[in-house]
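Structure first, sequence second, as always.
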C-alpha cells in the first residue's frame, strides 16, 4: 500500500543527494536513513541528545562565527 506525503522542494533536493543510483526511489532513501538511525549505538544516541540540548540552550556557534574566530 502506498501513500502520498508533502515535502518541501529543499527536502526533495536533499533526499536526491542521498541517492546511490538513479533507480533509488524516495522510499528507498527514507528507508536507508531510518535504518541508519536505528543502527546508532546507545552511546552515540546519548551524545546526539546532549548536543541537541546544548544547541537548544544556545551553547553553540554558527559555522560562519567559527570561521571568523579561526580567521578563515
Amino acid at each position: 500500500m502506498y501513500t502520498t506525503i508533502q515535502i518541501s522542494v529543499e527536502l526533495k533536493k536533499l533526499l536526491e543527494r542521498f541517492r546511490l543510483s538513479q533507480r533509488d526511489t524516495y522510499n528507498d532513501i527514507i528507508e536507508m536513513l531510518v535504518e541508519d538511525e536505528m543502527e546508532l549505538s546507545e552511546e552515540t544516541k546519548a551524545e546526539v541528545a546532549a548536543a541537541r540540548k546544548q544547541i537548544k540552550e544556545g551553547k553553540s556557534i554558527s559555522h560562519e562565527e567559527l570561521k571568523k574566530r579561526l580567521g578563515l
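Margin note: The helical segments are 9-17, 26-38, 42-56, 63-70.
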